[in-house]
UniProtKB/TrEMBL annotation:
Catalyzes the cleavage of L-kynurenine (L-Kyn) and L-3-hydroxykynurenine (L-3OHKyn) into anthranilic acid (AA) and 3-hydroxyanthranilic acid (3-OHAA), respectively. SUPFAM superfamilies: PLP-dependent transferases (SSF53383). It comes from Haliscomenobacter hydrossis (strain ATCC 27775 / DSM 1100 / LMG 10767 / O). Its EC number is 3.7.1.3. Belongs to the kynureninase family. The modification N6-(pyridoxal phosphate)lysine is found at residue 244. InterPro entries: Kynureninase, PyrdxlP-dep_Trfase, PyrdxlP-dep_Trfase_major, PyrdxlP-dep_Trfase_small. Its cofactor is pyridoxal 5'-phosphate. GO terms for biological process: anthranilate metabolic process; L-kynurenine catabolic process; L-tryptophan catabolic process to kynurenine; NAD+ biosynthetic process; quinolinate biosynthetic process. It catalyses: L-kynurenine + H2O = anthranilate + L-alanine + H(+); 3-hydroxy-L-kynurenine + H2O = 3-hydroxyanthranilate + L-alanine + H(+). HAMAP family: Kynureninase (MF_01970). Pathway: Amino-acid degradation; L-kynurenine degradation; L-alanine and anthranilate from L-kynurenine: step 1/1; Cofactor biosynthesis; NAD(+) biosynthesis; quinolinate from L-kynurenine: step 2/3. This is Kynureninase. It holds the Pfam family KYNU_C.
Length: 432
């Protein structure tokens, strides 16, 4: 496809976009009477217009039914989580019984490690990416210590080659091969939050299994963003948050995937609670945990219905749009952003995109290094109604000056080509 750097062209792309009406289903923060240029769906997705309606409905059930709402009404609360399975399964490529929405991401990561990080003297290592999201680093370190191992020995981090920002798949696979005999868990992000790189999940899964390790993914930035086929890839477990690309609200409950090969075995070790217990017998309050088959058997507590409710509004839109169409638009939208940023680099290199150039290795996010005036640029963008993300970053050779990375996530669900054009237009006019 040949892109053009004009507003007319961007509007033409929008006119041809079969998903363009989904934008009208979301509420945008405003700037000077118009919609902000919102590119932070990788941090907190926008509010679906119907989110409030779904919450109100449950408040009303609570008002009308009190405790009986657990068993009565249109969607009894004890069954509510099941209504979240079809879209969750669609988004991550799973069977409905392999997914559960519960807790929050870091909590679920710990729960999954309880099941899938069970070190012993021979096998105690975890292989992960260097520079993983901090919460994941803390979770892994604390698990390792809690089991009595030394993080310096037990955690193997695969880092980019010197002077590079991205990981080579062959380096990941080589690390798995090298440490295989001592490795019990391979744990990667699906998509690195900082660089926007998508890892080769099927290759990593196959390599981990070849050495006899479990393989899990943190899909915080991948779920609702890039194609996922967790069941077919044979991934052992995964976790993700639903407040980023899945637009379910601040601190919304997290998703967890447990492959049927483990989920359907009651003897798979786990931490248990009454909400994971045999539904028919839960309220008999008897001894002896009998897990619900599937990922639902990892639930601990009575579910947060009011926090679930906005997710239903979001899920309806995901099911209506469908991941394949969203991905097709996303590839074009991100490529258009890339094209426009590249055209600003023609005279002098100003914005160094560190996200992979290959569309298959990225999602709806481009991260670019801005040079030493980056923070001023970011402030200028903010003043002009752009909501995006800034991270400090010390570039080698910048004499200690703080430079930074701007992350822009044009999400196919509610961003337009015109949004992307307007953003690039602001970059063009930046006097820095
Ligand atoms: C956003 C994100 C988190 C956040 O974890 P919470 O428990 O939801 O606060 C964790 N890990 C990764 C990789 C993330 O991108």
């Amino acid at each position: 496809m040949t892109f053009q750097p004009t507003l007319d062209f961007a509007r033409q792309m929008d006119a041809q976009d079969s998903l363009r009406s989904f934008r009208d289903q979301y509420l945008f923060p405003q700037h000077q009477g118009r919609k902000c240029l919102y590119f932070c769906g990788n941090s907190l997705g926008l509010q679906p217009k119907k989110a409030g309606e779904f919450i109100k409905k449950e408040l009303q059930h609570w008002q009308e039914l009190g405790v009986e709402g657990h068993f009565e009404g249109e969607l009894p609360w004890t069954q509510y989580h099941k209504s979240l399975a079809p879209a969750s399964a669609h988004i991550v490529g799973a069977q409905a019984d392999e997914v559960i929405i519960m807790n929050t991401l870091t909590v679920n990561l710990h729960l999954m490690m309880v099941s899938f990080y069970r070190p012993n003297a021979e096998r105690f290592k975890i292989i992960m990416e260097a520079g993983a999201f901090p919460s994941d680093q803390y979770a892994v370190e604390s698990q390792v210590r809690w089991h009595g191992y030394d993080p310096a020995e037990a955690i193997v981090e695969v880092a980019p080659r010197p002077g590079e920002a991205l990981l080579h798949t062959e380096d990941i696979l080589a690390a798995i091969e090298q440490h295989g005999a001592q490795t019990t868990l391979v744990l990667f992000a699906g998509l690195n939050y900082y660089t926007g790189q998508v890892y080769d999940m099927p290759a990593i899964t196959a390599a981990g299994h070849r050495v006899g390790a479990y393989v899990g993914f943190d899909l915080a930035h991948a779920a609702g963003n890039v194609p996922l086929h967790l069941h077919d890839w044979g991934v052992d477990f995964a976790v993700w948050c639903t407040y980023k690309y899945i637009n379910s609200g601040p601190g919304a409950p997290s998703g967890a995937f447990v492959h049927a090969k483990h989920g359907n075995k009651p003897q798979t070790p786990r931490f248990a609670g009454w909400w994971g217990h045999n539904e028919e017998r839960r309220f008999l309050m008897e001894k002896g945990f009998d897990p619900i088959p599937g990922a639902a058997g990892w639930q601990l507590s009575n579910a947060p219905i009011l926090a679930y409710a906005p997710m239903r509004a979001s899920h309806d839109l995901f099911l209506e749009a469908g991941m394949p169409a969203l991905r097709a638009k996303s590839e074009k939208l991100t490529a258009y952003l890339e094209f426009l940023i590249d055209s600003l680099n023609i005279d002098e290199p100003r914005f160094d995109i560190i996200t992979p150039r290959d569309p298959a290795q990225r999602g709806a996010q481009l991260s670019f290094l801005t040079g030493p005036t980056g923070k001023q640029l970011f402030d200028y963008l903010t003043q002009n109604g752009v909501i995006c993300d800034w991270r400090e970053h010390n570039l080698p050779g910048e004499k200690g000056e703080k430079a930074g990375v701007i992350r822009i996530a044009p999400t196919p669900m509610y961003n337009s080509f015109e949004d992307v054009w307007r953003f690039a237009d602001l970059l063009t006019k930046a006097q820095l």
